[in-house]
Each structure stands twice: as structure tokens, then as C-alpha cells.
């Protein structure tokens, strides 16, 4: 099994021609043709085209040439996109860096540490402010909308002609959603969805283009306001995580490339290693603001992102989370004209669960577990449906205008379905004196009563969740809940993946809360002893947890988030059990929703461990070879040619020493990145020039930091014919001590080193320290455990 | 600065002679003599001798020879003990291992995964049972004790002669403590204290002898019962963490070496890598059972132990924690004759904090922060006093019998002080109809009243904490609280470090709760608006957090533990703020208590990162050299000689290939451990024998696992003169792909690799892959950031 021959070289992998199609896994000993750009590349190119994660701008020209091709495309789960680059979490320890570190005093490191805390505080503060802004704007706009529609409905209830109200509602919703969809689809497609899969990838070490830019943030915030106000089955919590991450990436760099402002601060943090840490903190701050769950935020960041756990980093992340929820709480308390009352820690407030009235008993635990299993099943169904829907979208709904139309259609359908349900519902409930319903609709109910179905539909999802948790027993009848679950399930499933900026947390909670409450009511009705089953809110909470767990499949962080959101740890144990059951059951059928979307994007995502049965693969078989190496002192022309070679996508080059005159092979002496070479070329750091122009200042680390992270392409750098004859001395700039592995190292061992240290390039050497290959993220991400054992994904230029 | 010459070779480091004394840091460029066994070694030997962490058995002979030496010994914080070995978290990927892994099917890995979950479930269950056992026994015994004393006091209050009651109390306490101290001091000194520093070290990768043995567990459990019943200022929570760890180490190995029982299960887990994961789970289960804080337990394990965060592992740890608290809860509910009522999730129950009555306001936050600062100060004072006390104990209280006497003295003094305080207190409070006091002492109070000081002193510490948190305002007068804080502070400080098995969590909480409540009362009295300050219990909670944080300096895990223990997340934010403030203030003055004790034991503890200012050190300067290397096919006699050489403590040997006849230097081709060589010698795996006895079965991985973890010493293996001439082929057994670094790698880079992968040996090679040195834990732990920049600790045979 272990003798897979790899003729496809790293440098020309994408150029080799081969037949496209449903490629079978590569691990059967014979060589399979790879998908290439020439033949199947076109159709594959389409796959990634219009999905949420990253679109290259220069695609319109290709698009036309692809018309008329068969629409049938290969199952793209088996592909790995070559489009995504890796982030580099390994410090480039070259002479410049070491000199700077050595110059720095103990006090200097202290100051750095303090500025890290300051940055984290700022991240938390700004994330909290953004959450506050979203919350207030959504509340105001939704208030106006519901008020208008309510008045309209009330006017027409008596006279008949409610269809006008329906049209009003549908048009209002569609308008909001249209605005939201237009800015997302036309201006920043990466802002679509919740952004959680993208942040997961970023923290995993995949460079998702434009994911942490200011423009993305603006579109995201506006988009989420539009889609929530537009009455879609979405939440505003997921996007907060993305927003927090963007804030973090922006603040920590002390400049905005989009706004062309450089504040000349935090320059030390301008590299992937530091930036990633801050983005973790930002994501945590986002979770914290969304759910009022600072500890849950930290755990989310760790569960999704961190590979190497660092105590100080964790504290900083915790600090950012804390500040974030506190800021939100503080400003919301002012907004609610009750300053100082810190009772709004998050965007969603589950309300207070009083432990006395809602204590659970030992014999309820099997029930909870059964509900967890049901949640897992429903979650898997949700994911399965959404998976096919996404495939459909990728294939047929490419164009931004189509996407906008689909979003508007969903908005209109949502309004129509809601209205129909409310219209035909005869679940009238008496309106208590201190009722909590914001917009109680009387409709055809008697005076002093309101329509119960409207509480669930005619409301922001957050309020609906809260009323399902807390309204007293008897507020909903089972039929209402059943119908609501059914319709909302399909609406939410249809909605997720639209080109609007919105999250899936709240819809999941709402579906789960509805069927959970239904379970509670049914249990109470079939048992004689009503006292324990009296409160269906308890079951609504368990159901909400089960459904959410079944869809997103997080356990530890989600448990803590839910516990923090309920404000009561008594429910810790049942929630844990439910989430675990939901995960186990759900994983049996289908992956988690975020993982599905990551896979559909063919992102080279590294999991926690190498596949269990991969011990028979060694670095030699996994690595890419031959590798383009550079000499320690290299001709400029050679470097330019290598960098300009469009058929390669090299980003790291081993630097070798060739003893002149000797026939001994070259020994590894360092590693240099494409981005470094670009900066060197831009500044014309040539040996000859250094000799002639002695006064020229030495290249400093600052020059690299200024260029980070948007290094210019090689095409933009002009090198004259004379300059091509010059030499470049890389000694000072290369990382002189790259991590290496011997060629016989097993894949799990390579994987562990790579993952634990967050590497981008790992040099494979023979026993005399000669370069024989290079392991990159894609080489490792290719292997995954499929249904029939180890499978190898194919690399393709999607 | 970077050119420290190191003449002290790795192989003979401890034998080189040099003057002992207050060695100044080594980093001043000149060479300093090292402490050696011949001169200063004797007195250093004494240092580690009678402290809590590990005692070698064969010390009595040396002890006599040391008499008459000056008692003045060097400040042993600047030493690093050579006594401690490292654990090896790097899989030994030799041919045997790889063959086994390759043979294993996907199903096999599934089964392994399931058995990991089963083991974690078992760990949780057993830890919960142990916690339950401790709780019930302590409650029963303490109940009897307090009842006896109370009756006695009541009898003598009227007639006078209360001194008899005092004597009775003191004698009872001393007796219990004596039993506890005797089993600890004479049978298993490692069971002293809370065990948290030891578990921290274990999870960090230091092998602390006997720390996870069954005997230790038995002594620990009995010891903690005795010391808590004996009325010392201790808690039973800390030891639970140690107990959980021992349970985990035992269960996961599927055998007990002490009981000589091998159940032939879980053989796959018999290596450091797997065992460490389970011990993490055990420690988490311990925290979970102690505080009813499953999430806190997971975070504790991660904060203290994990370097590489793995999602699946975290879930298993979480599962163990969950089962543990659930088991405790379930059995306690049966014991309390209320089965099914899950309201006792932990050993300490903070009681329910109702959010309505105890809400906090924004302007209270500065007050909380100030209390955090106070907690940090008091914590630093506590640690400072305990530090000097520990030094004193190490120097003068060596012998077990002295230790037992000290423990008895403390017990008697505690009883006397408590009695005196109660006697002279005139804080009488009316005894309400539904009073919660378990043993209300009337003493000189009027009928229907009880002595308030007695509530604090005449009670188990857990109950005292709860009454400080929840008793209504006015239960304690300020003088009572002030005096209680003062006396308990010094008592707790004196008690920690005694040769009894007990923890510092509860005393810290108690001290903090007392002065916190005092703050609350004072605040209420100086402000006009009494409604907000009405409940001093809130301040008691904040004070408890501040004091505990000031002493142990954990933040994230402690926040979660406290939040889970109060059962109310409303206090999350203030507790976080308080713990952070306490840590920042405390760290300014003194390290955390556990760190102090680890340092006093000269344990080579690796922190999260290399010291910030250590970039100018490279692997070449840090490594130990020359290294004893073995040939791939080596003479048995040579191996035996190397292993028998008592002057070395080698545990890993690079294996090299020397091309015969060529003068080229040897190239690295693998790494083999002492323990492996021992097994090979024991099984006489010699080339010649293999040829002659063809039927002899091949050595399997099982043979190594059976010998783990107590490999026999080389002295116990008989090798005849003929056999010495045989050859041993190491190819199959060595780890063929050890991690290596080039010699110019900077210390932080080496550190990162070493720490992230949990290595024991890291080979330093030159650019032709020739071995030039070896980096071990001690080489890295030596460098630490002192007050005057980077300092180098000295290695000594303590």
C-alpha cells in the first residue's frame, strides 16, 4: 500500500494534464490522473465560484468560455482547492529578527506584553460596541416594521382584505432582504453567512482572502441588520464572531490598508503569528457579546482555533471576552434607560431560569438523552438538506442578481408562510395583565386574547426563543408548536447559505425550543403526576440545546455558552449530556454544518490529528518534490524567473549551500518565503548595489512589516536587464533554522509537528541534510478518513 | 553575552568538583563553578530531603555522614534538581510500533477510541466514589467529635472548668491529626499537602516518583479524613485532584503493580503519552468532584497540564468530569435519603446565591477591584510567610517523628486558639427558629442565643464558608470577623506544608469570606443608602475569590470553578475582575503558592514560553555535550558499561551510523532510551543468539509495555562474560526519526518545539546531520527570568 509513486511534481502539479471526472481515491496503488486546469479545471473552477468563501475577481472572462459545458460536475467533496494559501505561524527567525529580539530589553518585552493587553481590551470594547449598535438598530427597525404591519393587520381584520397586509409584510421583508443581499452579493461575497466556517479556517491556518478586511466588516454589519429586520429565519449572533475577528485583525495591526491610514503603532504585531492570536481573541469577544458568555467565547476560540495552548494568551482572550460583554451590557443598560443595571450581557438573552421551579430529577435524564438523540437526527437531516441545497446553489445560482432574487424570494415566502400559519391558527390565549408579548396580534381572537402562533412568528427570533422558554404552561397548544417546528425547520434550512449575512444559531435554538416545548407538553399530558412536568420551558431549553448541537456539533464550548446564557449552572449536566448525544447521533449520519460548508469549499483544513490508519505513509510519500531551491547567494534573474513562473505556486524556497567545484549535493541551510523575496526585490537588495552605494540604509524588519500582509505580486516589480545579472545574498533574510524531518518519518509524526507548531513549510531532508522535498498544508490535508478507509483528495485549481 | 563556554559535560555534570555556596547566576560571561556532589552536594542533598515532593529511600546512610556540617545552606531556589526524570510524551516510533499501527484496522482504532471513553467514564465514576467516601466519613466523624465536645462544653459552662473542655477538644484534634501525620510521614511522604504542585509537575512532564501509586492514594484519602476531622485549617478539595490523578493512572493501565494484578486490558495505554492524557482527565474529575465544577475541571487540566490542545481529548476529559460530579451527586443524594435530588454536585457547596437579592451595580465594580487588590496583597503575604516557613521546615524539621509532632502541635494550637476566641467573644446572636447552624454553642450567651464566633470556628471549614456567604446581615459583628480573619490567616499559613494530606482552597476561601463580609459590613455602615449594601454575603463571595486568587494565582479555571460552585453566572464578571486584579497585584510581590513549592523542590518545570530575553542563546550553548552515542549494531558489553556507569544519568542515546573504514563522522540515525535497552538486555536480544536459536520468539511491543513503567535497574540484569562479546542490533527498536534542531536554533525556538511536542530528548545536529549535542528538560528549565534579567539555575544532585 505504501508505495504510491508520485510523478506529479510540486512545481507543476496543476499543469499536468489528466482527465477530469469523478476521480476515485488515489490510494489504490496505481496512479490516478489528477484534475488539471486544462481539461476539467474549467468546470471545477465553477464549483467554488459562487459560494460564500472567497471569489477571485478576475473570473468574468473565463465564465463565458465555460458556457455549453456539461453541467454535470464531479462531486467536489473529493477535491482540495489549490486556491487557498497557508498562514505562517512559525516565526521567521532570520538574522534581522534575532537582532531585533536581542536588542530588546526586558522592559521592551514588558511593554509589548502590556500593549497586547491594551489591544485585547480595545478589541473587546469595539466588538461590544458593534454588538450594541446591531442590537439597537435591529430593535428600532424591527419595532417600526412590526408596528406598521400590526396596525395594518388590525385595520383589515374587521373589514377583510388581509391579503393586503400579507403583501405589505412580504414587501417590507423583501425590501430589507434585498438591500442586505445586494451589498453582500455585489460588494463583498465573503460577508455572506455567519462567517464561522471562514473564521474556523482562518484560525486553522488557511488564508481566506479578504476575510478580515474593514469592508467585510461594514457589509457584514449592515447585512445582518437587513436580514434580521427582513424577518428571515436567521440570527444576528453568528456574524458577531466574524465581526469580532475583523475588529481584532484591524486593531492589532494599528493601521487600515483600506483607509490608507497607518497609525505607526503595534508594528511588532504585523505578522501572522501575532495576528492569529488577536483574531482568536476577537472571535472570543464576538461569542461573548453574542451570548453574554465570556468563558464560552474563550472555549470557542480554543476549540476552533488554538493548537498550542498558551496560558498568557488564554488570559488575554478571556480579558477581551470580558470587556466585550461588559461593554455591550453597559451601553445597552444606558439605552434601556437603566444605567448600571448589568442584565443584558449578550445579544440573545435567554431570560432567567429559576432553579426552584425548574429543577430536574434523575429519572428525567434518560428523557433528556432521548431528546439529544432526536436533536442529533433532526440536525443531521437539516445538514443533509442544506448540503444538497448548497450543491444546487453552487451549480445553478451563480450570479449575484440570481442570489439577490433568491434571497428576496425566501423573504417573501417566509412572510407568506408565517402569515398563513397565523391566519389559519385558532390558538387564542388570554392576554394577561403583565403580558410580555411585544406585538400581540388579536386577529380573529376574542377581545382580551391574542393569537399564540403570532407570538412565535410575528416577532424577532430572539424574542420567540425567550417566550418559548419562559411563557407559562398552556401558552401554546401542541398543534401550534408542531406546525411551527415543521415550517421553521424548512425555512431555516432554506435560508442558511443565502447570500445574506446571518447566522444559524438562533433558528436552531428556535426550532429546538419549539419541539422541546412540544415534548414537554406531551409528557405532561401522558403522565398522571403533573407537578414535575409542569414547566415545559425546561424541555424547550433541552430541545434547543439538542437541535443546536445536532446542527453545529460543538460540545464543550456550546455547553458553556448555553449555561452562561441561561445564567444557571444547574442545567450544566443535562445540557452536556444532550449535546454529547446529539453529536454522537448526528456524526453517525452527517458532519456538522460548518464542516460541510468548509468541505464544499475544498479548503485544506487540518484536523486535530492525522487519520488513524495513516501510519504506513511516510514523509517521502507525502511530500512534494522536486523542490525549487535557491542558493545562498543567488542571481536576481533566477529569482525573478522562479517567482514569475506562473505555473508554480511556490511560497517557500529552501536555501541550500552548494560547495563550488565539488560534486557533493547541496545541503539545506535555510528557508525563505516568496513574500520576503518580493520585498528584497522591491528594495533592490543586491550585492553589487550595496557595494557601490555604501550609504544606502540597510533593509530592516520594518520594511517587511510595512509590506505585510498585502505583498505586491512579482509582476508589479520592475527589474532591469542589468539588475538581473546582479546577485542577492539571502543569508541575512532566510530563516536559518527551519524545522526538518527525515524522509522516513511517518505521516502522523509529520502531522503532529506541523499542526502543533502551525507550520507552513516543513522541509524533508535525507540523512545528510540534503533537501529532498517539502511538506505543505495541502500535502497533509489531502489524506482523510473516508467510509472505505484512508482516502486521498485531489488537488484542483478551483 | 552569548559565548558561555560549557566545559561541564552532560555525562559528568554532577561529578565535576567545584565550590558550593551562593552561586551567582551563570550568565555573566565567565564560567562559574557548579555545585557538585563532593563538596556542597551534601548539604544540598538535605534541602530536598524532607519536603513534600518525593524522598528517595536510601538516604539514611548518607544522613549520618552529614552531621556536623554547617546548617547554613545555599538559597535553593537557584538550584535545579538532577533527581527528577522527564516523562516522554513523544511516541517512540520504532519499527515495532509502526508495524503494530499498520496492522491495526480502522475498526481497531475505533475500539481503542471507545475504550478510551470507557476508561474516562471509569475514572470519573471512581473519583466520584472516592469523593463521596471522604465526604461521608468526614461528616460522620466530625459530627461525633463536635457532638462530644459540645456536650462537654455545655456541661462545664455552668460549673466552670471549661479548661477541661479545651483539653478534650485539643486532645481529640491532636489524635486525629497524629494518625494522619503518621501515615503520611512514615509511609508515603509524597501524599502530604494538596498534591496539586505534584500533579502540576506530572502534567508538565516531570516524573515525580510514586506520585500516582495506589499506596499514595490510600494514604492520601485516610490522611485527608484525619486532618479535616482533626480540625486543622485545611480543606478536603485539593487532595481530590491528586486522588483523581492516581485513579486515572491506575485504571488506564489495567493493572496494579502494587497488588501484582494484571487484568490484561488497556495494554495499548501503557506508555507515557496515553497515561498523561488519562491523568489529565483524572485531575479534572477530581476538581469536578471537589467543587461540582465539570467545566472548571477541564479548564484546570488544560491550564496546568496540556500543551497541545486536542479536541477529542478535551471531550473525554469533560466526560470524565461530568461522570465524576454526577456520581458524587447521585450517591450523596442517596446518603441524604433524598435519592434523585441532584443538589450536591461537589464536596464544597457554596449554597444558592439568589440573583435578585444579590445583584451588583456598576459602581460596585471599583470596590470589587479594590478587594481584588487587597486579596492579592494578603495572598502575597500568605505566600511569603509560607515560603519562609517551608525553608525553615526543610532545614530543621527533617525527621518523620518531628513532622508528626509539629502537626500535632498545630492541631492543639488550632483548638486552643479557637477555644480562646470563642471563650472571649461576646458576639451573641439570637437563634432563629430555622437556624442553619449545625452545632450552635450557647456558652455564655443568653438562652435562645448562640455564640457567633463559634459558628466560624466550631465547625468544618466548608460549613463556615457557607454560613459566611449566606447568613443574614447582622449574624456576625465586625470584631468577630476581624479577629477570625487574623487568627485563621496565620493558622492556615502555618498549616500548609505540614506532613498531613490536606488542601489550601477552603482555608483561603474562608479567610477571604471573613474579610470580605467584614468589608461588606463596613461599607453598609459608612454609607447612608443601605439597601444595596444590605447583603454582606455578596462581599464575602468576592473576598473569598480575591483571597484564593491571591494565594493560588489561577484565573480562568478558578473563575469557572467559583461560578460553577455558586451556581450563578451573574457573578462571573466580578469574580473575573477580582481574580485578575489579585493575580496582577500578587505577582508583583511573590509567586503563587504552588509555584513557590515547586521551585523549592528544584523541579525542572517548563513554563509556557522561553524567557523573553533569551533569543541570544542558541541550541549550541544550551545543549549538553558531548553525548554518548551508540552504534546501530553495538557490542553488549559497551551498552552494559554505559548503562552501569553510575556517574551518568543518561536516559536517551542517539544511535549513529559509522561507515567502517571511512573517517567521516557518524551520522544520526535514531534515538534509543535507557528503558528500551534494559528490556533488550533482559530479553537477551543479541544478534548471535537470534542466529542460534531460530525458534525464539521475536521481541514484541508487549514486552516493553509489560515492563512499563517500573523498568528494572541495570544492576539487576545479569550479563555473562560471553554475552558481553555479543552484538545487539538496535535498528528495530530505536526511534528512527527523532526530532532534531540545527545548532544555531535560538532557545525560544528550541523551547517551543520541545514544549509543544512534550519531548524528553531533542538531538542537536550540525549541517551534515552529525550529532553534536542533546537538549533535555533540564537544559531548558535552567534559564529563567529573574529580577536582574536572565538567570541560570544550577544543576545539583539534591
Commentary on this structure:
The structure is a homodimer of 798-residue chains. Chain A is mostly helical and 798 residues long. Chain A is built from 29 helices and 18 strands. In chain A, helix 5 (162-187) runs antiparallel to helix 7 (214-229) and helix 23 (636-644) crosses helix 24. Chain A starts with 40 loop residues before the first helix and ends with a strand. The relative contact order of chain A is 0.13. The model of chain A is unreliable at 1-75 (pLDDT under 50). The interface between A and B is large, with 88 and 88 residues.
> Averaging pLDDT over every residue of chain A, what do you get?
81
Low confidence ranges of chain A: 1-75
Helix content of chain A: 40-55%
| N/C terminus separation of chain A | 29 Å
Number of strands of chain A: 18
Largest sheet entry of chain A: 3 strands, mixed
Largest interface: A-B, 88 and 88 residues
Q: Keywords, please?
A:
homodimer, 798 residues, three-stranded mixed beta sheet, 53% helix
Concise account of the structure shown:
The structure is a homodimer of 798-residue chains. By secondary structure, chain A is mainly α. The first copy, chain A, is built from 29 helices and 18 strands.
Amino acid at each position: 500500500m505504501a508505495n504510491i509513486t508520485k510523478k506529479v511534481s510540486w512545481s507543476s502539479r496543476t499543469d499536468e494534464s489528466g482527465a477530469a471526472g469523478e476521480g476515485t481515491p488515489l490510494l489504490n496503488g496505481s496512479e490516478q490522473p489528477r484534475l488539471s486546469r486544462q481539461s476539467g479545471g474549467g468546470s471545477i473552477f465553477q464549483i467554488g465560484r459562487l459560494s460564500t468563501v472567497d471569489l477571485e475577481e478576475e473570473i468574468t472572462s473565463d465564465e463565458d468560455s465555460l458556457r455549453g459545458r456539461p453541467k454535470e460536475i464531479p462531486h467536489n467533496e473529493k477535491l482540495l482547492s489549490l486556491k487557498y494559501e497557508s498562514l505562517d505561524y512559525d516565526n521567521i527567525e532570520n538574522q534581522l529578527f534575532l537582532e531585533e529580539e536581542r536588542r530588546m530589553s526586558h522592559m521592551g518585552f514588558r511593554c509589548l506584553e502590556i500593549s497586547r493587553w491594551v489591544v485585547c481590551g480595545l478589541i473587546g470594547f469595539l466588538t461590544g460596541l458593534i454588538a450594541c449598535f446591531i442590537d439597537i438598530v435591529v430593535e428600532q427597525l424591527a419595532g417600526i416594521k412590526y408596528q406598521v404591519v400590526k396596525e395594518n393587520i388590525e385595520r383589515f381584520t374587521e373589514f377583510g382584505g388581509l391579503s393586503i397586509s400579507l403583501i405589505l409584510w412580504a414587501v417590507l421583508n423583501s425590501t430589507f432582504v434585498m438591500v442586505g443581499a445586494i451589498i453582500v452579493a455585489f460588494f463583498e461575497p465573503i460577508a455572506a453567512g455567519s462567517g464561522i466556517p471562514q473564521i474556523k479556517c482562518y484560525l486553522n491556518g488557511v488564508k481566506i482572502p479578504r476575510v478580515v478586511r474593514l469592508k467585510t466588516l461594514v457589509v457584514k454589519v449592515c447585512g445582518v441588520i437587513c436580514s434580521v429586520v427582513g424577518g428571515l429565519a436567521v440570527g444576528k449572533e453568528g456574524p458577531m464572531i466574524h465581526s469580532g475577528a475583523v475588529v481584532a485583525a484591524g486593531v492589532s495591526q494599528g493601521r487600515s490598508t483600506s483607509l490608507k491610514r497607518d497609525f505607526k503603532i503595534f508594528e511588532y504585531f504585523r505578522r501572522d503569528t501575532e495576528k492569529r492570536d488577536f483574531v482568536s481573541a476577537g472571535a472570543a469577544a464576538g461569542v461573548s457579546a453574542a451570548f453574554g458568555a465570556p468563558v464560552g467565547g474563550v472555549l470557542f476560540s480554543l476549540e476552533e482555533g488554538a493548537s498550542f495552548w498558551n496560558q498568557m494568551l488564554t488570559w488575554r482572550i478571556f480579558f477581551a471576552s470580558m470587556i466585550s460583554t461588559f461593554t455591550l451590557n453597559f451601553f445597552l443598560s444606558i439605552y434601556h434607560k437603566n444605567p448600571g443595571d448589568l442584565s443584558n450581557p449578550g445579544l440573545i438573552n435567554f431570560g432567567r431560569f429559576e432553579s426552584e421551579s425548574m429543577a430536574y430529577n434523575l429519572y428525567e435524564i434518560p428523557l433528556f438523552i432521548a431528546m439529544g438523540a432526536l436533536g442529533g437526527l433532526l440536525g443531521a437531516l437539516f445538514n443533509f438538506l442544506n448540503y444538497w441545497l448548497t450543491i444546487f446553489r453552487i451549480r445553478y445560482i451563480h450570479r449575484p442578481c440570481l442570489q439577490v432574487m433568491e434571497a428576496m424570494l425566501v423573504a417573501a415566502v417566509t412572510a407568506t408562510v408565517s402569515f398563513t400559519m397565523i391566519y389559519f391558527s385558532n390558538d387564542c390565549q388570554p392576554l394577561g395583565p403583565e403580558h410580555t408579548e411585544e406585538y400581540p396580534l388579536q386577529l380573529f381572537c376574542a377581545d382580551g386574547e391574542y393569537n399564540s402562533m403570532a407570538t412565535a412568528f410575528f416577532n424577532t427570533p430572539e424574542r420567540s426563543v425567550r417566550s418559548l422558554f419562559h411563557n407559562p404552561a398552556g401558552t401554546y397548544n401542541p398543534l401550534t408548536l408542531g406546525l411551527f417546528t415543521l415550517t421553521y425547520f424548512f425555512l431555516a434550512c432554506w435560508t442558511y447559505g443565502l447570500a445574506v449575512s446571518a447566522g444559524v444559531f438562533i433558528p436552531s435554538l428556535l426550532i429546538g425550543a419549539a419541539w422541546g416545548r412540544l415534548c414537554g407538553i406531551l409528557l405532561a399530558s401522558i403522565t398522571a403526576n403533573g407537578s414535575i412536568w409542569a414547566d415545559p420551558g425546561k424541555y424547550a431549553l433541552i430541545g434547543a440545546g439538542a437541535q443546536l448541537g445536532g446542527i453545529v456539533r460543538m460540545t464543550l464550548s456550546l455547553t458553556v455558552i448555553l449555561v452562561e446564557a441561561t445564567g444557571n449552572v444547574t442545567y450544566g449536566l443535562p445540557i452536556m449530556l444532550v449535546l454529547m448525544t446529539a453529536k454522537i447521533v448526528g456524526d453517525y449520519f452527517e458532519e456538522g454544518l460548518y464542516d460541510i460548508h468548509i468541505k464544499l469549499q475544498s479548503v485544506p483544513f487540518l484536523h486535530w490529528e492525522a487519520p488513524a490508519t495513516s501510519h504506513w505513509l511516510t514523509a517521502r510519500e507525502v511530500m512534494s518534490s522536486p523542490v525549487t531551491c535557491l542558493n545562498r547567494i543567488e542571481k536576481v534573474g533566477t529569482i525573478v524567473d522562479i517567482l514569475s513562473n506562473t505555473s508554480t505556486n511556490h511560497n517557500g524556497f529552501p536555501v541550500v549551500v552548494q560547495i563550488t567545484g565539488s560534486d557533493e549535493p547541496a545541503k539545506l541551510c535555510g528557508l525563505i518565503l516568496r513574500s520576503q523575496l518580493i520585498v528584497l526585490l522591491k528594495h533592490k537588495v543586491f550585492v553589487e548595489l550595496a557595494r557601490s552605494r555604501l550609504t544606502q540604509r540597510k533593509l530592516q524588519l520594518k520594511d517587511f512589516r510595512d509590506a505585510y500582509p498585502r505583498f505586491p505580486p512579482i509582476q508589479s516589480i520592475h527589474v532591469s536587464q542589468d539588475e538581473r545579472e546582479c546577485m542577492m545574498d539571502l543569508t541575512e533574510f532566510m530563516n536559518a533554522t527551519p524545522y526538518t524531518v527525515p524522509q522516513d518519518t511517518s505521516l502522523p509524526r509529520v502531522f503532529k509537528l506541523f499542526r502543533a507548531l502551525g507550520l507552513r513549510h516543513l522541509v524533508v531532508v535525507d540523512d545528510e541534510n540534503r533537501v529532498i522535498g517539502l511538506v505543505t498544508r495541502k500535502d497533509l490535508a489531502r489524506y482523510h478518513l473516508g467510509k472505505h478507509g484512508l482516502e486521498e483528495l485531489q488537488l484542483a485549481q478551483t
